[in-house]
Amino acid sequence: MSEPLPIDPLDTLDLDTVEPVPEAPAPGRKLAQLMRKIPVTLTLEVGSARISLDELSRIRADSVVPLDTLAGEPLTIKVNGTTIGRAEVVVTGDKYGLKVVEVSDLDLGLPEA
C-alpha cells in the first residue's frame, strides 16, 4: 500500500483559477414545481338527488330524476371530489366547457415557484 501524500499547510490556493460552484435551486422550489405537475380530476357537478333503492330500481331510459339544483343556478366545480368553486356551462366549439363564476382560495400549501 502506498503512503499518503504529505499536505503542506503553507500551500496557497490561487483564487483566480478556482471556478465557482453553481448555486443549487432551493429544495422547496423544486418540490413545488414537481407538485404542480401532478394531474387532478376536475369535475362539474350539476346536482344530486337522494332516492330510495326502490326508486333507483325503477329508473328507465325515459325517467326524469329531479335534482337539488335550481335551473340557471351555477354548478359546483370539484377537484378530486373537493368543492373549489362554482361555474356555468358554456359551449366551446363542439364540446362543453365551464365558465368560472366563483373560485375559493386555492392555497395548495406549496411554496411559490
From TrEMBL:
Please name the source species.
Answer: Rubrivivax gelatinosus (strain NBRC 100245 / IL144)
Keywords attached to this entry: Cell membrane, Cell projection, Chemotaxis, Cilium, Flagellar rotation, Flagellum, Membrane
Annotated ranges, domain Flagellar motor switch protein FliN-like C-terminal: 34-103
Localization, per the record, is: Cell membrane
Q: Which InterPro entries match?
A: FliN-like_C, FliN/MopA/SpaO, FliN_T3SS_HrcQb, SpoA-like_sf
Entry protein name: Flagellar motor switch protein FliN
- Family membership: Belongs to the FliN/MopA/SpaO family.
Gene Ontology molecular function terms on file: cytoskeletal motor activity
Listed transmembrane segments: none
Q: Which Gene3D superfamilies match?
A: SpoA-like
**GO CC terms of this entry:** bacterial-type flagellum basal body; plasma membrane
